[in-house]
Amino acid sequence: MVSKAQGAPSRETPPTRAKDGAHIGILATLQRTIFLVSLPFGILTFVLPIYGQEIGATAVQIGLFFSAFSLMTVLLRPLVGIGLDRFGRRPFLIVGLAAYGFTMFAFAFSQQVWAIVTARLLQGLAAAFLWLSSSAITADVASSEDRGRAFGIITEANMRGGLVGTFVGFGVLMTLGFTEGWLWLFIGYGLVSLAAAILTWRQLSETNPRSGPIPRRPIGWTRPMILLLLVTLVTAASWAMVSPILMIFLQQKLDVRVAELAIAYLPAALVWAVLPGRLGGLADRFGRKPLMLFGMAVAAASSFLIPGLSSLVALAALWALQAVCYAAGDPAEQALVADLTGGDQRGRAYGLYTAAAGLGAAAGPLVGGWLYDSIGVQAPFYANGIVLALSTLALWALLEIPARTPTRPLD
Q: Tell me, what CATH number does 176's domain have?
């Protein structure tokens, strides 16, 4: 890959300085795989809370849909991280993709609250395998100078898949009706995920040549690593407070249909589809901390604005702003985890990092549902803004990132 200082490459160019074509092929295959498996994610974000209401779920039960997913990932991710370092990345990625296929089949036939919770537990298992292995592969293949952009490119593939899948999903639901459309839509999503597993099995090679039953260096519990895990835990819980009830709140406040909310989200989806790689490149050039602070500070401010929204146009603008924030902060944060650890520690490091996020995400929806039902519909959004603002101050004052040492891919 050509760095930003040398000239901007096209988005489709896999983000690596490696000259070995195998490394380029690995990231290209990973991008295609993530795109395919991400097709259902957008429609689930919009429809799952509304579907929960349709089958009689309360706000707390809808929160449980999200907590069940997060709880499963919390339990599995540290163990999966150990497995990634010991047995390699490829087997876990293939298992994760196949598990996502069976998860979509479970959603297709879920018509009760307990069935949705079961499907979400299975999705949590699939996510633990899929996202940890894909993060480790990205960190393995990209050099330290390109890591932010590498993670951004994978994020783009994720969001592009979700965007395409959302359009397909709403088209199917409007054509066949909600009940029959739901069934055939998720059967289709499941078949695509299984196809992605086969593609990975045939085309992706192992990226951790050190895997095997050999001694492993312990993860260095440095101050930056500990602070990053704590902030990840807190901010994940904060974000998860508002995620399950956001669609319900907006639908009631603005008196609009879910399809109209999906249209309002389109500018944000486009931001997610094109900017993470570019903003990740800024994190490579100017450092991880400035991008993380920018993203978190503006996200905090935007959360305070949500209760006062009065139109779809304002909502679309706010969602686009939030997308820029997270597209700036997420690749920088993921790259920082790799910067702070060595190649034979990355599976465990990403296991701990994502477990911290999952633990927060498991508690957040239940707290958010309680605030929504008991305190007021605006309370979760104000609480989220306060937590994000305090976390921004903590990172600004306490996070000291050591200078990066240039590395080659697979170091």
A: 1.20.1250.20
